[in-house]
UniProtKB/TrEMBL annotation:
<feature type="domain" description="Phosphotyrosine protein phosphatase I">
    <location>
        <begin position="88"/>
        <end position="213"/>
    </location>
</feature>
<dbReference type="InterPro" id="IPR036196">
    <property type="entry name" value="Ptyr_pPase_sf"/>
</dbReference>
<protein>
    <submittedName>
        <fullName>Arsenate reductase ArsC</fullName>
    </submittedName>
</protein>
<dbReference type="Pfam" id="PF21234">
    <property type="entry name" value="Phosphatase-like_N"/>
</dbReference>
<dbReference type="GO" id="GO:0046685">
    <property type="term" value="P:response to arsenic-containing substance"/>
</dbReference>
<dbReference type="InterPro" id="IPR023485">
    <property type="entry name" value="Ptyr_pPase"/>
</dbReference>
<dbReference type="InterPro" id="IPR048716">
    <property type="entry name" value="Phosphatase-like_N"/>
</dbReference>
<keyword id="KW-0059">Arsenical resistance</keyword>
<dbReference type="Pfam" id="PF01451">
    <property type="entry name" value="LMWPc"/>
</dbReference>
Length: 220
């Protein structure tokens, strides 16, 4: 089934319809020789559906779907052996993917640079990243404003070498052959920036220790 048929059936706006067709074209070009059009369209479609019911800014839906579909396809390529860059991949998981896991992701990407890959996800993704967490990270020069709450998927979990969980409990996915580590951290939901700073600083210490264990040089 083509992208145009899939999305026409859901009575999307013409702008979303056009944007998703363009996204499918870009993803097809990016994954040429790795995945076929049907796989790419399916991932784009299911990624769109993940956000369609709770997007606070509907105009961003096609962009979010494209970004998430690309991440998932990169993960699938890794799982299926199409992608071998030798970089360790870490997945940060919490409940809403709005605070702890986003701050950890921000720190990891800032410190590891191009030497490692990191993703994040939530068991019950929220609608936006915690504004106070954004402000707390901005204080130390890390911008997480472009991030967004998202779920995890099987291919993303399977593609990770290390899975860091932060309070998602039994909802956290378990796959054999992966390293799991639980970080016990207070949930920053509803807290002020003053209250979040100690959590932020604890996350930094943990991320730096993890990078050292992975033998990834910290840039900051």
């Amino acid at each position: 089934m083509s992208t145009s048929t899939q999305y026409h059936r859901r009575d999307l706006s013409m702008d979303h319809h056009i944007a998703l067709r363009s996204a499918a074209t870009r993803l097809t070009e990016h994954f040429t020789g790795i995945f076929g059009t049907e796989t790419i369209e399916r991932f784009l479609h299911t990624s769109y559906e993940q956000f369609a019911g709770k997007a606070t800014v509907p105009n961003f839906l096609p962009l979010l779907a494209e970004r998430f579909a690309k991440q998932r396809l990169i993960a699938l390529a890794r799982v299926e052996g199409h992608h071998h860059d030798g970089k360790p991949t870490v997945l940060f998981l919490c409940t809403h993917n709005a605070g702890r896991s986003q701050m950890a992701l921000g720190y990891f990407q800032h410190l590891a640079g191009e030497h490692a890959t990191a993703w994040s996800g939530g068991s019950e993704p929220g609608t936006e990243v915690n504004p106070a967490a954004i402000d707390a990270m901005a204080e130390i020069g890390i911008d997480i404003t472009t991030e967004y709450p998202k779920p995890w998927t099987d291919e993303i979990v399977q593609a990770a070498d290390v899975i860091i969980t932060m309070g998602c409990g039994d909802a956290c996915p378990i796959f054999p052959g992966r390293r799991y580590e639980e970080w016990t951290l207070d949930d920053p939901a509803g807290l002020t920036v003053d209250d979040i700073r100690p959590i932020r600083d604890d996350i930094e210490r943990r991320v730096r220790a993890l990078l050292a264990e992975l033998e990834v040089p910290a840039e900051g």
